[in-house]
Structure formats: structure tokens, C-alpha cells
Amino acid sequence: MTSPTQTNTAPSRETLLQTVAAWFDNGHYARLLAARVRHPTASEECAEDVLTAYLQDNITPYLQDLDFHCEVIANPLPGMLPVLIARRIEDAALPTMLTYGHGDVVRGQDAQWRAGLQPWALTLEGDRWYGRGTADNKGQHTINLAALAHVIQARQAQGGRLGYNVTVLLEMGEEVGSPGLRELCAQEQERLRADVFIASDGPRVHAAQPTVFLGSRGIVNFSLHLKSRDRAFHSGNWGGVLTNPAVVIANAVSCMVGPRGAMLVEGLQPPPISDDIRAALAGVDVGTGEDDPATDPAWGRSELSASERLHAWNTLEVLALGAGSIERPVGAIPYQATAHCQLRFVPGTDWQNLESTVRAHLDAHGFEDVVVTVTAATPATRLSLQSPWVAWTLASLQQSTGKTPTLLPNLAGSLPNDAFAEILGQATLWIPHSYPACAQHAPNEHILGSVAKEGLLMMAGLFWDLGAQASASAAAPNTAPWATPHA
Question: Would you say residue 486 has pLDDT above 50?
Fold first, then answer.
């Protein structure tokens, strides 16, 4: 495979990166991001016209200036949120890159931001740039689109062309579970056809460490519920002769998760960690960044490293546990109790049969009356570490930053990566521009200006290298990585 260094003349690439850095330093990225943060695109609560306006009034004109054909289309699911598909086709015979982002954000939580900050205005305080969506995901897709714009303009200034086609998919419902995204990908397979998928979301492992991840852990949300009667009864009059559903649910949970967090349900265990994944995670530190919580080395599978537990293993978490009145308890036996649980899992887990697996496990431990209900699920995905795209991408990022990037087999959290990896069958590469302490989904959300600038340089270099690689592939057909299907 030809490396990025070998396929580019250094002055042209270096000049591009110098231009991009000056553009950032002159405040252009900040102004672009500020205009997008001003759109209050909280998908959980705002009207569809507000979400559509972000796509039509902000993103579409920007991409049209870069010769994209843009179309805001209705969600395949009735009543769900709009999606933008933008395509820049230089030549149907050229390879294609698909990139993705989401313009929706979580609720502003306006009253909870500290003095001097507000969610719908970009506020710069040193390296911290505050505003809702700065980290998730407006700041990240703004970096990628700006980097792409610079590469297009640089290639055109040389009298050439980008060298590959680009499709942009921007949804407005990621924060509510991406309803309709998978149906859209199935419906629009021809327009979304691409040779590689490159996008940005989630955090780096550390603020100063460029990171690439190849997929994400999956997620299944489910609930355990027991209703013993229609109302509560006095604990003094009836304690000892009435079933207490809170006690039953607490014990049902304890038969599934041990006192130190190890999952006890055999049918939900992951496959053994492979040697290549173990090697990739060997140098990855967890919980050493600014504002990171202290990790517990004895929690979960303590024989595994922290990075293996987080990125290569399954965890069963209790998200909420309730019975009676938590805030103002009374002397009564509650009539019902519920535990809301979540399985985070890696590829190879039998997650599709979670309900029957949990059912059988509870029955075997004497909890036949506990009801199991699955409420949401997203598959786990992971591009093979042996894909030619992996080494190629790491080399490009290292050339742009002078740093050795961290490679994660998958994000510990969850993303709708299955829409691209499984439905569209694409090699998926994620290059995040945020960091773990960004207050994502919380008050005072922010992005670091230093990370944003480095991300802009990385993506500009990567998009430049893609064009050089496409030219090399045209001269020598069937060369990797463009011509290599993902595994």
C-alpha cells in the first residue's frame, strides 16, 4: 500500500496545512461554529421547522458553495426528523467517501449553566469554547466540512480536482436514537454508496491524543419489573407476610451482577479478547485526563486492564432502581418495583436473544414473577484492525500532527455505526475531535480550541491524502485501500 507521505508532494500538503492553521487562528472557525450553535436544535423538544432550518439555512448554502447538490428529505418514518443528503460527484467512475454528522443536540438545560454562559451562544474562555453542540456534534462536523472545503479549494487552485466523490449525510435525530436512519440507509443505498465512511463523534481517549476508532459497542436497554398488588400496605401491619417487590427486584439484580460489578449472566458474556485487540489496547490509559473520575481497579472483571474492560468487554449497568417514594419514604410496603438496566456489549455477543436469556437466568434463580422488557437496542460494530484503511489512516494523521494516534477497536459508547457498516457495507473510520471531560449532554458543554485546531489539520491532511490515494488507484487499479472491501 502506498503511504500518505509517498503519494503527496510535501510542499503542497504543507502549504494546505499552513493555510488551514491561519484560517483557524484568524477566527473563521469560531464564527462558523457560533452561527451553528445559535440554532436551538434540541431534538427532544423543538419543532421540526427549527431542525429543518439548520439544514436548509445553514448547512445547505455552505455545501452548495462547494458544488454539492443538496436535498433535505423527509424521514422514512412518519413524524420523525428530517435528513440532509448532499452529493458532490466529480466523476461516477471515481471512488466515493461518505461522511456523517448530526445537527441535533440535547436539551439546553439553560438554567443550569454557570454564570456568564448560555447554551445557544458560543463563549470562548481560553482553550474552552462553550455552547450546546460544540462537542456533540456541531463542532465536530464543522471541523470536517471546513477541512473538506479547504482541500477542494486548494485542489481547484492548482487547476485540478478533488479526485474522489463525496456524500454528506446529516441527520437531526441522533440524540433521540436516530429514528429512521437505518430505514433511510436501506432506502437510499444507491445515493449513499461509498468506498469508505469517515466521520467524527465521541471523545478522544485524552485531549492531547489523536484517536481513531473503528466502530462502537452495542447497547440494549431493558427493565425488570414486579407488581405484587394494586397499592401499598402499612409495613407494621403487614411486614413479614406480604411480598416486598423492592426486595425481590434488588435480589434479582444481584443474581445478574456481582457486588463488584462482574456480570453473572453466562449467555450475555462476550467472546474472548483476540490478540490483535489486546495489543491495540495495551498502551491505552483510562481515567487519567483532567476532570476524569477515579476508576476502580477492582470493579468488573479485575483481571482485565481498564482499557480492555471498557472497550473489549461487556458490562451490565443498573441505570435506575425504584420503589415507593425515594424522596419522602413512608412506612409502607411498596406495591411495585422496577430496575432499568443496560447491557453495553462488543461484537460477537448474543444480544438479539437478551430477553429470553435474562428470562431463563431469572427463572433459574427463582425470580419467575419478575417481568423482563427490552426497550431499545443498537448493534455493536467493529472494522477489522487488519483493514488496509486502518494503517493508512493512522499514517496520515501522524504525518499531520507528528503524534502517534491511539487506535481503539471500538468506542466504549454507542453510535449508529451499524447503519453504515452493516446496511451500507462500508469500512467505517471515526476520528473524534472532543475529549472525555467536555460535559457532553450536560450544562457547560464545551470543545477545546486546541483540539479543534488539531482536528482541522488532521482532517485536511486526510482529505488531501484521499485524493492522492485515489489518483494512485486510478493509475494502478485494484490497489488498496480504495479497492479493498471491509471485513
Answer: no
DSSP-derived pairing of the beta strands 165-171 and 215-216: unpaired
Under DSSP, the state recorded for 59 is: I
- Tell me how far apart the alpha carbons of residues 63 and 52 are, in angstroms, rounded to a whole number: 15
The distance of Cα 21 from the centroid of its chain, to the nearest Å, equals: 26
C-alpha cell recorded at residue 295: 476508576
DSSP 98-114: EEEEE--B----GGGSP
CA distance 207 to 433: 9
Backbone CA torsion sign across 310, 316, 322, 323: negative
- The yes-or-no verdict on residue 2 having pLDDT over 60 is no
DSSP 8-class letter at 34:
H
Give dist(CA 84, CA 173) in Å, integer.
12
H helix or E strand, kind and range, residue 442 = none
For the chain, what is the radius of gyration of the CA atoms? 24
> pLDDT by residue (tens digit) across 440-469?
999 999 999 999 999 999 999 999 999 988
For 288, how many CA atoms within 13 A lie in the half-sphere containing its CB? 10
CB 252 within 8 A of CB 224: yes
Whole-number Å distance between alpha carbons of 8 and 231: 73
Find out whether 253 and 339 touch, Cβ atoms under 8 Å: yes
Cell numbers describing residue 67: 458544488
List all residues 6 or more positions away from 288 whose beta carbon is below 8 Å from its beta carbon. Answer: 206
pLDDT tens-digit readout, 337-390: 999 999 999 999 999 999 999 999 999 999 999 999 999 999 999 999 999 999
Q: 3-state SS of the chain: helix, strand, coil percent to 5? A: 35, 20, 45
**Bridge-based pairing state of the strands 218-227 and 371-378:** antiparallel
Return the ∠ at Cα 343 (arms to 342 and 347), rounded to 5°: 150
